[in-house]
Design goal:
The chain is mainly alpha-helical. It has helices spanning 2-33, 37-54.
């Protein structure tokens, strides 16, 4: 059971940490794109929402193992 939960736990940690990393990088992102910091925050939000909404529709890669029960 632990082998099944470990990837989920690691993914949850990575996604949770991502929010803190982006918050620290917002000034750099804004400077690189020549936009104000709030606009850079909105761009990051749009990216995250697009990723979250499109992820369920994304098919698995062709090299992923197929398991049948």
């Amino acid at each position: 059971m632990l082998k099944r939960l470990l990837p989920l736990a690691l993914a949850t940690f990575a996604v949770g940490t991502d929010g803190y990393v982006i918050a620290g990088l917002l000034p750099s992102i804004a400077a690189d794109l020549s936009v104000p910091i709030p606009a850079a925050g909105q761009l990051v939000t749009v990216f995250a929402l697009t990723l979250a909404l499109s992820a369920p529709a994304t098919p698995p890669p062709p090299w992923a193992p197929v398991t049948k029960r």
